[in-house]
Amino acid sequence: MPTVLILNGPNLNLLGTRRPEVYGSTTLAEVEALCREEAERLGLEAVCRQSNHEGQLVDWIHEAGVEHKAGRCVGVVFNAGAYTHTSVALHDAIEGADVPVVEVHISNVHRREEFRHRSYLSPVARGIVVGFGVYGYVLAIHGLHQATRP
Ligand code: DQA
């Protein structure tokens, strides 16, 4: 079964308890279960990973690129958290790995502080889902599935 990589960056391991008024009360484990279920409905296997470390996220994007080239991975659903607004390394990783990436944000970053309005990932993303809570991950899986269907 082809895979879809569900990648979460820094602090997203705290989902459920961190600022629930902004990010909701669903935990990361619950989000990942939701992604696995939805992916399976579309004939995909969701591989779920989270790291607080930028280099680890870079390595996983590279791996996804290799898997994508081999026809085993349709792409990446990626919430890079705060690295979205700072990371040239993640921008370059996505560009270099040449793998379709859907950028996801649980909150509507454009209604928030100005430093969250800038994304280093958007220019190299296949698509973007912002502001629909954790349901954004489901929308991103569907978008990726449609966009990469043969
Ligand atoms: C976030 C938005 C980012 O600005 C923030 O740093 C996060 C979560 C979101 O999902 O809304 O950690 O990516």
Automatic annotation (TrEMBL):
Listed EC numbers: 4.2.1.10
Pathway per the UniProt entry: Metabolic intermediate biosynthesis; chorismate biosynthesis; chorismate from D-erythrose 4-phosphate and phosphoenolpyruvate: step 3/7
Active site, renumbered: 23 (proton acceptor), 105 (proton donor)
Gene Ontology molecular function terms on file: 3-dehydroquinate dehydratase activity
BP GO annotations: amino acid biosynthetic process; aromatic amino acid family biosynthetic process; chorismate biosynthetic process; quinate catabolic process
TM spans (from-to): 120-144
Top-level taxonomic group: Bacteria
Record-linked Pfam families: DHquinase_II
InterPro entries: DHquinase_II, DHquinase_II_sf
Catalytic activity: 3-dehydroquinate = 3-dehydroshikimate + H2O
UniProt keywords, alphabetically: Amino-acid biosynthesis, Aromatic amino acid biosynthesis, Lyase, Membrane, Transmembrane, Transmembrane helix
Positions marked as site (Transition state stabilizer): 18
Binding sites annotated in the UniProt record for substrate: 79, 85, 92, 106-107, 116
Assembly with partners or alone: Homododecamer.
Family of the protein in this entry: Belongs to the type-II 3-dehydroquinase family.
Function: Catalyzes a trans-dehydration via an enolate intermediate.
Protein name: 3-dehydroquinate dehydratase
Source species: Nonomuraea muscovyensis
Higher taxonomy: Bacteria, Bacillati, Actinomycetota, Actinomycetes, Streptosporangiales
